[in-house]
Every structure is written in C-alpha cells, then in structure tokens.
# Entry
Amino acid sequence: MATQARAEPDSLAAHYAAVRALSLALAASLSDADASLQPMPDASPAKWHLAHTTWFFETFVLRDHVPGYRLYDESFAYLFNSYYEGEGERQPRARRGMISRPSLDEIRGWRAAVDEALLGAIGALPADLIVLGLNHEQQHQELMLMDLTAAFFENPLRPAVWPRAPSWPSVVPAPSGWMRGAEGVVEIGHEGGGFGFDCEGPRHRTFLHPHALAERTVTSAEWLGFIADGAYADPLLWLSDGWAWVQDEAIEAPLYWVKEGDGWARFGLDGLQPLDPAEPVSHISYYEAEAFARWAGARLPTEAEWESAAASLDPDGGNQLDRAGPVRPLAGETGLFGNVWEWTGSAYLPYPGFRPAEGAVGEYNGKFMCGQMVLRGGCCATPRGHARASYRNFYYPHQRWMVSGLRLARDL
Amino acid sequence: MATQARAEPDSLAAHYAAVRALSLALAASLSDADASLQPMPDASPAKWHLAHTTWFFETFVLRDHVPGYRLYDESFAYLFNSYYEGEGERQPRARRGMISRPSLDEIRGWRAAVDEALLGAIGALPADLIVLGLNHEQQHQELMLMDLTAAFFENPLRPAVWPRAPSWPSVVPAPSGWMRGAEGVVEIGHEGGGFGFDCEGPRHRTFLHPHALAERTVTSAEWLGFIADGAYADPLLWLSDGWAWVQDEAIEAPLYWVKEGDGWARFGLDGLQPLDPAEPVSHISYYEAEAFARWAGARLPTEAEWESAAASLDPDGGNQLDRAGPVRPLAGETGLFGNVWEWTGSAYLPYPGFRPAEGAVGEYNGKFMCGQMVLRGGCCATPRGHARASYRNFYYPHQRWMVSGLRLARDL
Amino acid sequence: MATQARAEPDSLAAHYAAVRALSLALAASLSDADASLQPMPDASPAKWHLAHTTWFFETFVLRDHVPGYRLYDESFAYLFNSYYEGEGERQPRARRGMISRPSLDEIRGWRAAVDEALLGAIGALPADLIVLGLNHEQQHQELMLMDLTAAFFENPLRPAVWPRAPSWPSVVPAPSGWMRGAEGVVEIGHEGGGFGFDCEGPRHRTFLHPHALAERTVTSAEWLGFIADGAYADPLLWLSDGWAWVQDEAIEAPLYWVKEGDGWARFGLDGLQPLDPAEPVSHISYYEAEAFARWAGARLPTEAEWESAAASLDPDGGNQLDRAGPVRPLAGETGLFGNVWEWTGSAYLPYPGFRPAEGAVGEYNGKFMCGQMVLRGGCCATPRGHARASYRNFYYPHQRWMVSGLRLARDL
Amino acid sequence: MATQARAEPDSLAAHYAAVRALSLALAASLSDADASLQPMPDASPAKWHLAHTTWFFETFVLRDHVPGYRLYDESFAYLFNSYYEGEGERQPRARRGMISRPSLDEIRGWRAAVDEALLGAIGALPADLIVLGLNHEQQHQELMLMDLTAAFFENPLRPAVWPRAPSWPSVVPAPSGWMRGAEGVVEIGHEGGGFGFDCEGPRHRTFLHPHALAERTVTSAEWLGFIADGAYADPLLWLSDGWAWVQDEAIEAPLYWVKEGDGWARFGLDGLQPLDPAEPVSHISYYEAEAFARWAGARLPTEAEWESAAASLDPDGGNQLDRAGPVRPLAGETGLFGNVWEWTGSAYLPYPGFRPAEGAVGEYNGKFMCGQMVLRGGCCATPRGHARASYRNFYYPHQRWMVSGLRLARDL
# Structure
C-alpha cells in the first residue's frame, strides 16, 4: 500500500477524527445490550467493532511506534484481537457475544484515550499505518451495520435503529440495456497512487473476451419473477453446492424478506418495510446470484470486466455511507459504485506476483484467498471515500448478510 | 398443591413483595448487557428470568382473574413464555440472548406495573396461584444465579458480581461417619399441608432396604483424591454414557475448576478464588457423582432414602439464599438441607397415582419425567423457605451448572 | 448368576450345539455383502454378531480356561470385541460396517473351530461361563434380526430375507379388559435357581400400589386411532424430550410403517406387507408408548407390576423364536411373554444391593444403568427358552428398531 | 465435445470392449462385501461404480437410441443414478453402502447384457455419446481405486488388493531445477479435435506473466522436511480455512501416512508399505499443497501455466493405469503427465464463453464450478489414454483421497 491517503481532507488528523467520529455516530443510538449482541459466529457485536478498530491503532501504531506507551488495559488485546495469529491468543470468534464487560461506555473511554494519544503524536507516527487503520475502520463500519441488521432481525419486535421512513413505491424500470466492454489485453489492479489493500495489486495485464455488462443491477421486481417461476425449486438452475444449500436451509427468498399476507416486506435498520419492487435486490448469496444469471440466460461479470468498466468512473459518486442516518439501497441508482455490492464470477485469489505485506498486518488479506468469491463496487453501507475501481471485497458463496446484489453480463 | 404457603410472613402480600424484591436485589449490580447474556441454550439471560416470572403472574393471575385487565405489552407473551406449549408460540430457547430490547429498565418497569396491579387486587385473587407463582419465581432466582455464573465464566476477565472475599483455607474434615436409615415400608411424598409442586405427590408408601447415609457431603479434598487416582481416565469407573461424555467433552475436573500453576482455583459469582479443599465439591454431573461413589466403594442414595432421613429436619436451617450478597458452599455445613444439591440414584419419574395439575400450569413438571435424575435438599443459591423434604429437583445426567454435589450411601 | 441353565436339553453340549446352530441358520440366506451391512451406529453387521459371540467363547472360555490354547486369529479380538473396556482396544462401533474381511465364510470357519475346541473340552470348562455365553449369543440372535431388518429397510428394493407370506387380515379384537394386580409388599428379581443376568438380582421386596394391567397389548388398529386423532401433532400429549424427537425426526408413525396410497404397509424380514390392524403395534419408542398411554387415559406398567403379574406364567409359551423362518408379531397372542417387548414406565437402574459380576464380564449390564427404560417379556424374535419373569431388557427412550409394543396399566 | 475418440484402437467397438474389460479386471479380486463398502459419503462402493457406468450406457445410449429397448431392471435407475437431477430421484449418496443387493455377480450380469446389446447395435448408435460414456467410465475406474483405498484403510487388518511388492528405497533426488514458462497471450483449452469434456473449452486466449515451473513434483523427503520444521503447527503458513481444517481434523501428515516407530509407512492398494522418501508426496489437500509452497518460498502454478507447459508433451507417456496390477506413484517420474495429480492455484470456474452440453449429460461438469480447485496431469490411477493437456480435474480444498501432489512454481 502507498503512504498517501486519497481524498484526505485538510490533514491526516482531520481525516482520522472524521472516520473515528463516524463509528461512534453509527452506534450512538445503541444500548449496551444492543452493542453486545452477536447473532452468529460470522458477525460481531457493535461494541467489538468499536473496540477492535481501536485495538488496531493502539497495537500497531501506538504500542509499536510511541516510545514508552503503556496499554490502556492489558486484557483488551486478548478480548479484541481478531484473526491476527501473529498477535497471540484471542477470544474465540463465536463467543464474542459473551463480553458484557467492558461496557459500551468503557469502550468509548478507551477510544477517546487512544484518539487523544494518537492525535497528540500524529506528526511522528507512520502515516501509512494510520491510513491502513482508517481503511480498516471503514470496513468495520460497514460490518457493524451488517451485523446489527442481523442481530435486530433476530428480535421478534423487529426494532428499527433509524427512524422508519414512510413507504415509497418507486417506478419499476424497463428491462436493462447493455454496455459493451473492453476487449483484449487490459491492465487491472491498484495503480500505486493512494491507498490500496495488498490484495488489490500488483497492477497487471489480463485478457478480456468480447462481452457486455447490464446497465443496471437486478431489481426486486425481477427477483419476484425468478421466485414466481419456481426457481428456488428447480435443481437444474443451481450449482451443486447451491442446491444443497437451498434445500438444507429451506431458502426461498433473499435474506430479510418476510412474507406478509400475499406479498413481501423486507427488514433493515429502518425496521420492517414494504418491499419496493423498483429497488435493487440485495442480501443474496453467490449461489442465488449465479442461479439468477443462468435463469436469465446470462452470467455474472468477471472482476476484470467489472474493473475495466469502472476504471474511469468516480468511485465516490454513488449511494454511500456518510452519515449515521437511514441508509438503504435506492431505486434508480444504476452506477457501478455504491448502492449494492455486485457479485462477480471470479474467485478471490492472488493476482500474479502478489506478495502479502510484511508483519502481522500482512495476515490481513492473503490468508482468506480460498473458497470465496469477489464482489465489487461498494454499497449504501460502505463509507464514502472507501471505494475504488480496484477494490476487492470477498465472501463465501453462501453468505448474504452483506448488501449484495448482482449485475448481469453476457458474451458477445 | 395446597392453598396455604408455608413460612408465610404477615400476609401473602408481604410474602409476595419480599420474593419479588429479592429477584431485583439479586440483579441490582447487573448492566443491561450483563442481564442479556445467554451462555448456552440451557441457560437464560437474567433479564429473561426477571421477565418470565412476571409473565407468569400477568398471564395466569392477572389476565385470567382480573376482569378487564389489559396486558402491559402484547408482545411480551411471545418473548417471555418458556415451555408452556398450551400458551402458544414463543421465542426459541436458544435465541433468548438476542433480546436486547426491551431493556433491563423496561423489564423493571413491567415488574413494577404487574406488582402494583396484583397487590392492588390481591384479596380477590386465587392465593394458590400466587403461591405457585412465588415458588416458581424462587426457582428462577436460583436459575438466574446459575446462569449468571455460567455467563461470567465465559468472560476472560472473570468478573465478580459480588465482592471478592479474602481467601480462607478451612479445616479439612476427617472421613465421614455413617447414619443408619429407616427400613421397611415408609411413606414419602408431599403431605398435603402447605405448598408443594405436583410432582412431589401423592404421598405414598415405598420400601426401604437396610442402608446408611454419610454424615456429610463429599469435600473438594476428597475429589482431589479422585482426580489424583486417575479416575477421569479409567473407563471402568464410569457408566457407559458417562465415559462417552468424559471423552467427548475432555472433562477432567468439576465445572468452574481452573488450573492455576500446580493447583486449582474455582470460579463463582465472587470471582476466581483459591479452591478450598474443605468445602463440599460442587458443579459435578451425575456421571461424576456416580463414578465417585463407585470409586469410593459406595453408591448414591435413593430419593426415598434421602427423604426419609430428612423428614424430621428443619428445611430452612442450612446455608441458603436470603440476601443479594456472596453465596457459596461452605465448609463444615453437613446438614441435608442447603449448601449443595445432592445427586440421588433415582430417576425423575411419576410417583404412584401422580396426576399433573389441570391447565397450562400443569405442563410444569410432568413433561420432564424422562431421562433426568433427582437431586435433593437445596443449595446455597436456593432461597430460604423454598426447600422441603419432599422437594424433587431434577437435571440431565451431564448437566452441572447448578450447585450439585453428593453424599454417599451404602447397603447394610 | 447360577451355574445351572434352565431348560437345558440332554446336556450342556447339546444345548451349546443347538444355540450355535440357530445363529448360523438365521444367517443362512445372507450373502457376504448382506452380512456386512451396518445401517446405523446402534446396529451391527450380521457377520459381526456371528463373530462377536464366538469371540466371547474363545476369550472368556477357551483362552482363559484351556491351557495352551492358541487364538484362531490374533486380530479378531480387536475387530470383534464390543464394549468390554477391560479387554482393550476395539474397532469403533460406528465403523463395524467397514469390515469386509474376514468374509462371512471365514467367520463360519472360525465358529466351527471354536465350537470344536470347546465341545472337545467341555467337561473341563466352567459351565456357568458357557451358559452365560449362550445367553449372550441368544441376545445377539435377536439383535441380528433387528439389525438386518434395519439394514434391508435401507434398500429401496425392500428385500425379503424370508419368504413373503400371503397377506392375512385378522379379526380386530374388542377393547381390552383389565387384570387386577397384586398389592402391598411383593418380591421381585431373580430367584437364584437357573440362569439370570446380574442386573436381574438381587431378589428383593418392593411395594405395589393398587393397579390393573390390560389383558392384551395395544393393536395397530388402536394405533391408527391415535394417528387419526392427530396425536403426533399435539405437544400436550408428549414428554418434553419426546416432542423434540417427534419434531426433529419428523415422526408420524411407528418405524417400518410405509404409507401406501391411503393406507399403510409395514416392513419386516418378510418384506413389505399390508398392515394387519389386528396385530400388536410394534417398533415404537418409549416416547410413543408413553404418549399413547396418556392419550388413552392410562399409563405404562412399572416393571415390578409387570413382573409380579408374570411370575407364575410359563415364560416359553408365547410367540418366540425357535427356527430360521418368518417370525412376526401375531394377532391374538395376548400373553405377557413373547410377541412384542412391552415398554414399562421404569428406568433401568440397579436393584437394591446390586453388585456387578467380577471381571470383564461384569461390564456387561451395570454400565448401562443410566438414561434407559425397561422393557419386559420378550418378543417373536427372542429365542424360546431365553425369557424369564425377571428378565430386564432396556433401551433408550427414542430407540425403536427392536420389536417393542406396549400394554396399558392404570391405578385403582 | 467432438465425435472422434483419440487413441481409438481398431474401432470404437474394440475400444469399448477394452475399457469395459478393464473395469472388471480392476474389481476381479474383490468379494461382494468388499465391493459394497462405502467408507465416506464422498466415496462410492466398487459395485456402485461398475453399475453406475453401466446405467450411463443403458440410459443415454440404449434407452434413448435403440427403439424398443427394454431396461434390464427398472429399479436400477433409482439405485445407480448419481447426480443427474434431470433423470429423477435416486438413492441418497451417503447411503450407497446399504445396497447389498443386487450382488456383485448380478451387476456383472447386467454389464454383460448391456455390453452385448450395445455392441450388437453399435453401428447405429451415436459415437459421441459412446465416447463420452467411455471417458466417464475411465473417470470411475480411477474413482473406484481411490474409494477402495479409502475403504480398505478403514479395516485394521490393512488388506492389500494387489500383491505386496518388496520394499524399495529409491535414490532421493537433488533439489529441483526450474523450467521457464511461456509469457504473454497464449491459447489454452480443448482444441476441438478428439474428445474433451465440456469444461475444457472453449479454447481461448489468456495472459501469462513471467514464471517458471519446477522440473519435478515435490518428494516425500521434502515433505518430511516440512513436517520436521513444524509446519503443521504454524498458523502463519496456512490459509485461514486450511488452518481451521488442520486443527479440527488433527492433521499432521498426508492421508495414508501411518506412524511406525520413529518413521512412517504409507497405505495403498498394495497394503502398508515403508515410506519411500524419493517418491512424490501424494494424498495431500490443497491446503497442504498451498502451505508447502508458501513454506518453500514459492507458489502453485496456475492451470494456464501448467497447460501451456504441457501442450507439446505426450499425454500418454507417464506412469498411468493400464492393467489391474499394482499401481503407485514412482520415484524418478518427473513428467507433467501421470504419477500424481498436480494441484494448481486456479479455482475451477467456467472458461470464457463456456456453455454446458445440452440435456441431462450437460449436468456433468458445470454444476460443480464453485468452491473447488483445479488439478492437472493425471496420476498412476488414471487410465492411459484418458489424460490431455486441457484436462481439468477438480476437488474441494480439503479433499485428499485422490492421488494428489504438487509441483512448485515461481514468478520471474
């Protein structure tokens, strides 16, 4: 990664303050009990996100680079380390929901102390590590929203974190047109200027075959057609693993869709809302995305096709997160960036010449390069300023608690 | 059950107020997050106990017996019903820890409203149902303490709910003597005067063979001898199911015993404390109790033997719960009541002529009469006034998060 | 146990030869592959039963009592030991179906060699161990038939081991009458004359309350009424564990009942046959038996009630196994012995004063005294001569691949 | 796929006869019980392989293309269909080991009847389907050997299917040299002449970066160094999923390696043999291959790199299967084809422009394109004539019962 943060405001200090403040703002309405919920092993309590991001700064910046720095609390390293094996033992992932103490207020206190120490010494600290830490925190902002949605969905009262907006049926769009993509040898991967995670590079040549991408992502209206056609009951539309998943989990709609009478509602941090057929479908697994594409006579884009199409676009121009207010996928947002993550047909694997970063932070991405698929573009819960054309998100094919949708592609 | 509560203070109202107040006092030091923890499906959050006991009074007393009573919140029935199938759908047991809302304060508000309504109408309400509800609440007071211990044990910080007492090594007692028991036809079961759960009756004759009971329960010092002798690694000492459990769960000591250097500490609501060898062993499973008895050349008492020995003793005279302060098994307490529950060798089955109570409250005990073993006598976490000679507690053979110990018996 | 076998023919040698021959006759029509099937961990391959019973004689009789005896094959002890921890390591129970070698013919060869060695030395060998081995082999004859039924039921071709008999609708009997039982102090348990397993003793006094037993076991016609009444969907009829089992396993009829059009067929070693409503219901779990009794306004007998009623009857007079031909529960057989095992409401626990036999054979019964329920009387697959009034069979409450039915009881 | 079979002998008929005869020869020494063993859900009984390959010819060739053809046995379609959802219901995969009937001899009879019918009409039958069926059968020949090895490994007697060869320590080779690979745009994928599975095409351009491949695969001697260095205990060497697998399964060596005193033996169809350090390591998972490459400072080749290097080589020139005799990986065999399958770092995904074949046979490959990794080159158990430079084998990252090894690659 490079040492210059893109979209840096006046200074690194201001950027640091802004990112850190947004995390707190997102959690502002939570009770201590809300912030301690862990609805599944894949998810973490909000409190844990607030603490773990702080642990990153305290460990890799303050402890390693401020002479004589004393840890705020020795026990927090055990509690709030995540997967950094090089940093020693840690609380088992599936038991993060057992940490009622320290309280949310105590975590806020720790955040304040670390922020004060870091901002006080920022001129003498390695900017690249701080920028890495901020990007890491932005990832956890999105994860915190995802995990809260999953947690609150478990409560039969269906609580809303944000005010419930009035219901709004949008105009369902006409069938999507197609955009012809680049062909032949192209370059993809992070350019080297500005921040990028290690897995985004090195920049390298790859070969694109004639293809087109849809002009917009698939809508809920189109997904209702998929359901109405009996797709969830037709094994021939599914990957073998996908069909096993559909049957084992009794899947019959996207996550958070709830049957209400003859129709559907969908749950989010704005509570249970009528399903808007014009909005992009979201919270679908790779299996569902892939099956939908087959049903539609199309396929998913590769990550190289997607990145090639996105390279010249403004990555900050979409429906993204920049306040602690209601965020949700919006109808009519058709750009490649923001709104919903787009599943690609590419496995998350190292690029040619990939080398992980040195040290414990190098555990960050490379160790997950097996069994996961790439998503591109960011979503409404991705902080504005965090997206890039080269950004590679990745999840297992069955996962769907992120804001995931799809855009079709086809061979020409 | 009968309509007169034993040990009733001045009046039923005062008794009601005292029991309800103790529940709140026990939870007084908990945060909302503490009170929402569910460490395993067998356990429930403290908040849930406070709510479920209130649901009992609101449903079976106020709703059913106060004309025009309006439920405090319609949704609470779903959230806080437990196993009463006759009362409709309910939150899945294993997901009770997902209920961050309503908050602990909101539950306290509900409790206050129900208490006010009930006390205001108490003269017109069926005393037997109220007494049943109070006994039910006392059971949940003990469960709440058990579940909190299990929850806090999951936190690597090992938080103490109550002040940590200074460590006190007691005097390890000499080998236990034996008390000869009654023989021939005896009567056991609830007499009919005062309150009893349906499973305690009917009173009936049974036949006792010549036997003796140990004068005290087994100590931790004796258990250390069992460990030192390699008992956890010797299949010939164990029931077949017990040996499978020892191996599958890698059991090598009672629950909450923690290896510290060459010795042991034990965890409780007073935090992690040095193991006192003189105190009775507790938090052992039936499998462990039964294996210890075999190792010691003895056996467990039957419930009839135990009850026959206990019938003439004061059930309220032991180490029992009567305040929200540190409670723990005490060395030197040798009586049959209080201190630790005593595993018997009797399966929890209906007595001759048993009939469950009518209506939804009749689901209470009879449906659990399969696969569980009886424990007798109460423990340090059982509210004073709740124990009886005829009281039948019951757990599965592998369970050990209750304060369970053992007293040996032998044939004469 | 005593050294005299009851119903011994001319001599112990002749009895030995007859029991051993019946095992081979029962397996005569099996292929090597048939005899290697293990349909579930609870069941064993027929080949394993033939081998394990031989291992018992070779180990505990020949090896221990014939000077200089050399094992037929050293490796067989590992392969065909079952649960005797004292006899060392053994093939994991769930992987017994992986033993394609030695072949069925090789096992037969081993049996012949052991039989020759044992019969050649029988005068010098301990008769009590041989009698124990023969009773053990008779148990395995029944298990072999049970396990084969389970195995063949897995084959969609529904093969019949025995010729398919023509279908025979019997006369459905009138409602059962009641037999008044003994009251007060009675004696039960093995008398001491003739063979008995250690768990059948010691003979001891117990107390019976006024009660009656039904004159016959419950029929399939009556079970159809239980089904038609919606009993499998009514939680209030079931024990808590039983209701969980019904839901988890989607139980809606006895094992081996197969829906055919509007009616039912039932599978057995005589293949798939029309259900005869007059025959006793069989292959039901304890949960089902207990629920049926509750539905019928009755209860299950205790084992003491059952034994007291059976003590004066001829234990060999029922529908029992004495040839390798079709065996099945028969309509109109109403006695306490044979036809179907009868679930009791008694847990399988040690009698007062129980002591396991010494040595490895003492592992036989005592270690299973937890979590299981007692059945009485034997069934059509129990070898004639094996049943006794004091005989205690035992299974877990969910198991039902044995020929298990029920007889109602009620309090007077 | 094309209609011409490569390496066709005199005629399609002769080729058909030869392939079908090899299947029988491989199973010639098996008993009916051996042929019925299913050691795990991933594996199938030998009998099932012999039957399923026959079902393919009977269903897709005879039934669909011979007017008036009558199925040999209607029930076999249910029993021996595998994953063809379009062909209806089938025996659950995990229960294939329950099919003791039909017997191995009956399956042989079915094979003979199908062969006779097919050879009698071969001139009028679609050659491409027959060639597909023969390639399908060759795949199952290899699977049958893999599955038998897994099955016999479960038997503590460690039976050998083939004669045990005398042990032979080979000469351990010097460190491997490197071969520079092609760079820039290359073409890979099936050419179109001769048979290929649908997933091997279409032929297409891709881009290769500067790289080199090792001149030979990794040896067992090198793997012993990996073990000796503590690699199985070092989380930093492993993918995240791989580390979880190592811990959950307690992995500490390749599959079939058995500790013997201070050294290792390895199991195969030739029984338990001393480990030859010079022979290529085999039976390793993708996780292990990937960790080894990281440990060695190298990486796995991509499938395009591998195919580009292999395109000009003779695919039939290696250590491959062409008789029913002992087959095992051989020391000193360094070619890309045969000996051991080589894990690549490529996920098994569709090539650009991929379309599955039409009809039920089109279910063949495309539905598995998720979560699996590509292996290349064939192994000692792959029938000679079956391998191709474009051949794509695929397994899940944790699987290792195939003859899988690795060849290192590195960036230049």
Notes: The interface with chain C takes residues 83, 85-86, 185, 204-207, 209, 235-236, 238-243, 286-287, 290, 299, 345-347, 349-350, 352-353, 363, 367-371, 397, 411 of chain B (CB under 8 Å). Residues 1-9 of chain B have pLDDT under 50 and may be disordered.
